[in-house]
Specification:
The chain is mainly alpha-helical and 65 residues long. It is built from one helix and no strands.
Amino acid sequence: MSSLPVLVLGIAVTAPTTAEQARPTNGFSRSGPWNTKLPAHVPLDPRSAEIVDNIKLDKENNYGT
């Protein structure tokens, strides 16, 4: 029986201690609108149902599902 050498690389991954220290992984700045938290209670747009229906139609018409 022969033995093959095995190479193991240890990579330490540590998480930031607070959310403020975390860097976004989506390519946008931390303080930009794409990484800004929404308030706890955001009212829905009065036309929310119409907007959702439009998104559904777009999906069906352009992506066939």
